[in-house]
Sequence to fold (884 residues):
Amino acid sequence: MIKVNKIKDRLKKAGEFAYFYFRKLPIEKNSIIMESTQGTDFAGHPKAVLRGLAETQNLKVKVYVVARAEVFATVSATVQAVVGDSGLNVQVIKFSSTAYMYHLATAEKLVNDTSFWPFFHKRHGQTYFNIWHGTPLKRMGKHEQPVGWGNVQHNLLSANYLIGNNEYMLRTLTAAYNLKNIAQTKLVELPSPRNSELFNDQVSDENYYVWMPTWHPSHTTAQFMDLLTEFSQSLPSDTKLKVKLHPFEDELLTDQDVAVFSNIERLPREVPVYELLGLSKGLITDYSSILFDVAAIRLPVVLYQFEKDLYEADRGVYQEAVDDIPFVVTTTASATVDELVAFQLDEAYEVFAQKYASHDQAFGYREVANFILAPNDAKAVSLLNGKETVLLFPGPLLDNGITGAFVNTLKSIDLSKRNYVVYIPGEMIPAQFLYKLEELAVSYVMPHGTGQMGLLQAATFFGRLNDEHVSSWFDFGFLRNLSEKGARYEFLRTVSGLPTDWFVHYPGYERRQALLLNGISGTNIKTAIFIHSDMPQEFDVRHNFDKAIISRSYEVADAVVGVHQSMIDLLVADGRFVNPNKMRGHFTVVNNFTNYMEVKEQSAVSQAVALLKTPVQYVDNRSLMRQYDLFEATDKISDAVKAAFVLSDVIGNLETSLPFVYQNRQAIFSDIAAIFGPQSAIKINESALSAFYGISVLRLLNDLYNPALKFFVNVGRFSTQKAHDRVLRAFAAIEKDHPEYRLVIVAPHGESDIKAETINYIRQSKFSEKVYVLGGMSNPYALMRRAEAFLFPSRYEGLGLVAFEALAAETTVISTALPPIVQTLNDSQQHPAEDYMYFSDNEGDDFVAHVVDFVRQGSQRKTAIDFESMERRSLADWEKMFTL
Fold:
């Protein structure tokens, strides 16, 4: 049965559904839609700009102000107060209503100080002005966290103009949201519209300070009441304190709470705080960007940071801005008041104000309003660098060969030749692999949410994203065309404002991104999809991709890219997936990059460092546990407690328990300490080992440091393709006569049934204590280098990149004679493939026999491979792809 939840979700949002159709209507000339904080308020920049529009004489525009239902009356009153009797044609519309969707889709100009919702898709003919709401002190975008900000990025990419009142703000936003070089957005330095309210010629009839603490989830009413008590006792007799809490915690203080203090007043959310600041005697804040704003009028400021460490630990701040701040920092209310009373303007404050608020002035809001009415590109700075932009979809960045090949590609190609941009939904990446985004040498964009589309388009688009059986229902005629039309609309929404020349589906499996590729193929965006494996075999054995969608990608893409010619030959020969005569584009080959120099460097890292943070899939510690009479102990003691007890005792008796770790302990301590840097005060000793390793990894380290032992290493996910059964049969065939051998399998993930079969086989074998099954490792190359041989028994591969990485780690490789490996060596090297690796047949137990022969005859070093020639060839292949 079709899973229609997503379609139903779209239909429930009737306004959004209408938005798609309203986008087909003509643009309403001389119309402006203005939204602040997604309709929760109407203040700040949009309100100030509206004031500028109202003061413009004979202005023939229609303005639509957005407000949520719960603040509609308040916003309407605010708008009326701003517009007065100016005659400006203004209408307040409810957020998310049909009217809102209509005007969002048809207004000629759009103004926002944060972001429109994810379904927003700016049209040709609309001009979007994003007036960012404040100079950033707290970290934003990728500087705060690797994902979770895709919609803000989407809005900033969509904006024609990003307006800020200082260079630091615009530079920081550009970096935090990956806009540099690729966004059509133009940067404009103009006065802060809302800061105009600070310039007030009136004189207040009372003396007061304003306290504006930043929001934090740990804040409580009791905490604020304690702080207010101290303030009340410290204020001069003729001075009051006006408290303005962040909107997220406004409810923590009520008027009744504050009524107990005669000299303290709570400012409700709707109070125009900037006007009050302009009349105040000083500002008390902590981490708020408002301190940059009040610099425009040189207002006395004290930073009352009563929980600085807590906040910085949560989110962090920009050090450049922190270093520039000239204000005194206090930690008590009494000291804060004392500093405000004694405050004097100095040169440091003047320098600060010039950097962050030099454009601001009393009528700055008019300048911004005039720019919106008649944009002047002479004041704007373009972010585009004029280079071709290539979007690369890498897949979910798992620990697998495709991710490794992708990372190697980015490290090997000339990144300055084009704008290479990773295109990946943040929610696709498992949490444990998010760090890989931060390590990429290129920018990335995160398509966020799902746009609205037509009823039939939605039905066919989401229908095709169901299981393959359902997807096949839509794989013909007009239904397929409708699904691809929806895919095209969705893709263009996600790259709005990002001029795109190429979209490359690098893994070649994921159906949603393949459907997006199908939708845009044949447009001015060129497309490519890679083939990393024997796809017919993958489909028959694993059924891990949608045949209809992927086959369509092969048919419509501009380039179908095999990582080896044999991948293309197998695909064509099978006949089920593509007919070369019906292809829009061409087949081409881009051999994988090996990144051999980095592999060689990492292989020289000590095993102690390489094994840090390495998860263990299975290690048999039963004999060790029996020594402590714990294996058969009462079930009242948990396995975790038993293991902790054993680990403590083993480390306490390291010399006898793990003699080779003991002999090498100083080197281990030194290697670990080096990670923390020479300035670190951390001291590594025997008692600290339990903080870095469990008993299983310590046992492995002990074996690795034992010069009498020899190792085989295998790296590959749990799957039929990777043939762990061959590895285990080979080890079973040699271990009895050669007890000095150990086996390490690095299997970061895979199919659960294959994993269970593999571990169960090891557990029931007579050699279980000689086998270590590890999880994902960022650096398996140090283990490879220690091995007598790297075992690579795969039944089929695209290229078998990890086998070449083992060669780069200067390790002998025993492999099945897979055509991609054999042909790559024959084509790129001076000698036959057999001079570089040991090859077995890919049938029966021939691989087992080769491992046995290798052990009996003794290892012989093969010819060193010429990696440079392989890299040059791959680079030429990569460049050729863009000339098709």
